[in-house]
Amino acid sequence: MPNRPQPQFPELDSQPFWEGAKNGELRYQTCDDCKEVVFYPRAHCTKCGSGKTTWRTSKGTGTIYTYSVVRQNRSPAFADLGAYAVAYVDVDEGFRMLTNIVGVDDPTKQIKVGMKVKVEFEKQDSGEYPIPVFRPA
Amino acid sequence: MAKKRRDAAVVGIYEWPKRVDPSVSAMQIKAASIRRALEDAGLDWKDIDAIYDAGDGEGGGGLGLAAYLGVRPTVIDTTQVGGSSYEFQAAHALRDIAAGKADVAVLSYGSKAATQRIPIGTGGRGVGGNWQGNMEIPYGATLISNYAMVATRHMHQYGTTSEQLAEISVATRAHAMRNPEAVQAMADLQFVGVNEITVDDVLNSRMIADPLHLLECCMVSDGGGAAIIVSGDVAKKTKKKPVWILGSGEATSYRTNDGDITVSAGAQSAPIAFGEADVKPKDVDIAMIYDSFSITVAVCLEDLGFCKKGEVGDYVKGGVLRWDKKGAPALNTDGGGLSSNHPGMRGLFLLLESVRQLRGESTSQVPNAKLAVAHGNGGLLGATHTGGTVILAAD
User: Fold this and answer.
1) Which tens digit of pLDDT belongs to each residue from B299-336?
2) Fold for domain A60-137?
3) B138: nearest CB among A5, A67, A70
4) Is the dihedral of CA B207, B331, B363, B379 positive or negative?
5) Which residues of chain B does A94 touch, with a Cβ-Cβ cutoff of 8 Å?
6) Which of A4, A11, A81 sits opposite B130 (nearest CB)?
7) Which domains does chain B have, with CATH numbers?
8) β-pair partners for A62
9) Whether B129 and A87 lie within 8 Å, measured CB to CB
10) Residues B6/B244, Cβ–Cβ less than 8 Å
11) pLDDT for B190-203, tens place per residue?
């Protein structure tokens, strides 16, 4: 299994996101007052400042906004992965998340901006929280 | 050009000449650079009444630096916004001096990034445990990959090519080869070839994070320096001609759900600075733009208004960024972070080379250079970052 760094707790803003990941749910928030989609998680709306938000669960589908294939990472958790793709994915409910693109034989050739992708929750040797990554849909 | 502001001027500079230097500490680099910059200005240690510090140096910062130096400033500014900290600090020095709070402001920098072998671009991104880190650390997005994702998107939206981005590395290296300190830096850091490079050289260097190649990435060096910024009254009695700070702008930008990643904080900071200075990008002779990577310069050339968004690929063609070519301001005439000096926070050197150009002291001197812009980009382009723009003019 992969051995990516785990999120660290206590961390009050992102904890519900990661508890969701344990249940196979990709969570995000919306503002109760102005309906803005709030992401990364936090306790206020970034558009109007409201303190009232609601957690929702995404269908987990989206589009690659941009990406890069990392050829060199000196941190131990990634040094042995080989070339891997980091990306921003525009998730269909309206939030953009940093993630990895998996499930391609050659990330340097098979990933494109605009590609449709879907989430999967990758279990980790490093701890109890699976990491939401995306693969071509 | 409208009548220039005369509130504050850079009157003393010093850049630590060695890029690999196990014999000194970062704090020693800072203190010695301040001494040499004061000598350059013809001012004394006891004249210092304001310090600006980004927290670099062992036991420095707002509490440590004044104590280490043995001075008692009445302005202590600890602005730390990454590599652009020094553009922000120069802006604050201008503001503090104009407000009468200080007469002799000192900016300093020291770093041992090479000796300590710190993998700035390709190391891990720290630890999680905060709102941002917990959402990013699991994905292994190295510093450079953030910049690379901006390049990917720029290529997608505008058809920009690696050949075009490589022009930035080529022009910068040409300047570095004219700067003996940069040549020594490349030798000491064991660059594969200490020579001018071509677009093909850049494209044939190994990929670090697609689409950015090795020769599109800055070096990791030791280094540092200092700048002395003084009031108009003090500038009347300094040794060299003052270089006036005409205006400044500050901004931050970050990942949003629907933002355009190809637009940097510079798009907000630059119009403020140019407006305050009452000058236009077309008036600029020297563009000192933070070249952490080729794409950083490309995006900032657009955001500062030298060309339209999306058109930088055409703009940089044909070597126009070289000191001896017309058609664009001369870019990073010291050799830049790509080929002269990058100990982690390059912002100070943007100010120092601007001053050298406006004094007529550069190793790639643009004849009769009158106006320079120093634009720092700190943090992670494409993610949370800052832009600081400073407009400087010859007397």
Assistant:
1) 999 999 999 999 999 999 999 999 999 999 999 999 99
2) OB fold (Dihydrolipoamide Acetyltransferase, E2P) (2.40.50)
3) A5
4) negative
5) 257-258
6) A11
7) 8-117+220-394 (3.40.47.10)
8) A91, A117
9) no
10) yes
11) 999 999 999 999 99
